[in-house]
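queue> holo job accepted (zinc ion)
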Amino acid sequence: MQSFTLAEHPHKRLNILTGEWILVSPHRTRRPWQGKVEKPEQDQLPAFDHSCYLCPGNKRADGSMNESYRGPYAFTNDFAALVPGTPQGETNIGGLLKATAEKGICRVISFSPRHDLTLPQLGIHDIRNVVDLWCDEFHSLAADPDIRYIQIFENKGAIMGHIHTDRSGLLRLFL
Ligand SMILES: [Zn+2]
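queue> job finished
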């Protein structure tokens, strides 16, 4: 296995001023960047976008194909902040730079096959399906004894690295 390096592997790093440990994901700089967009979101997005990594049946950033999904859809993040195979390791440079390797899994949930809908625009039945999938993902991953913490959050907007502009839930799981 590769040995741990600060420039390559996810790790937690101590902020020596506050005493907080901060997650650092240096490998994420390799993910594709489709351009910063600062203007207000368009009113009229298409229901399906051929160039979107998350739309049903499209090719994702890592070259794999999305299923032609009809409801909420879960998959492992192609450019995850944490990955399971991170080698163990520590760095301590004079007590000023302290870091420890960190492993984890990041799962993505696309809320809907529709490119143009946000969560509050979905019907109650479709929102219920999203919540059920959150629960399924949580339970299946929580069954792994190595996973000690699970965070579910919504990651909105292309600037956050999600091209399906408002429709991604993401599970971040720490081993
Ligand atoms: Zn899309």
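queue> The longest helix spans residues 124-142.
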